[in-house]
Design a protein that fits this description.
7 strands, alpha/beta, 12 helices
Length: 317
Amino acid sequence: MGSVYDFTDFDGPIAEEERKTQARRQCMYSAAALAVAEVVARAYVMYPEFERALQAFDRIYQLSGHLETPQGALLQGPPGSSKTTLAKYFAKSLPQSTLFDIGYGALFIRLRANPTQGLAVSQLLRAVKYPFTEVRKNRVYTMRDIAFEALGQKGTRIVFVDQAHCLSTQTRVRHSDVPETAASDTLREMMDEAKVGLVLLADAMFKGLEQVDAALADRVSVRLNMSHFAEGEIWLAFLQAFSKKIDAIDLSVIAADAASATYKATEGNRRSFRRLMTEAALITDDAGSKVMSVAHLRLAFERTRGDGSPRANPYAA
């Protein structure tokens, strides 16, 4: 006899629903489809905001370590505007050099709510792959010095700090006789002492460094903005350029018949766009097709949005 949770021995709507659930769980995309999707997910397209930010990062990277004047930038934008993607793209695109260990020329850390000096130091130690990343309250400054020394040994020239808007909630606390300062103090000290450039990636709602740490704001002089695409010429040019980046599947439909629907599906949000295209590529390849269609996009929207989405499927007939 089957267990009470085995519905295969019964008939009716519950059994049918369970069989459908099991079928969904057993459904997997093919290895070939996953390979195609990976190409789509990694495709990058240059557009004005992207290029301007990369040029600023290049400048900070080249000047850091050579000049006494700290070099930094604040990049703000709404979620899904490719701030994190841009930082990781820059780090991966650095050419090999004897000036830094491979993979350490540009590092990436992430803050969280109420960041302290201990958190910032711990994140830096993790980024340089130091074996001990726990920062005890009575060893904050010692571990800070170790982190700064490691940055110098690795040849790190620029550090990207994601979720930098969390600095607005940073705390300054004291434990016994040992002070633990705020995360912004550590970032400022890193720029001054380790001669490392700094790029802060923050939400568009961030009110600015001046209200958080005037000394850090004075060092982070460059201000950059990222935004979602507006529907128009730049959006269409982006779709055309993206479709040309992919050889394994013909994506020309997104820049033609489905251009407007794709904007409605993503609202110009680049993360939503990448997720949608990746899913559509999986569906297209698994269907045995080399040409993406509106039908593939319609199913991709359903799978990435779910039944509870308040947004109607723009690809529906």
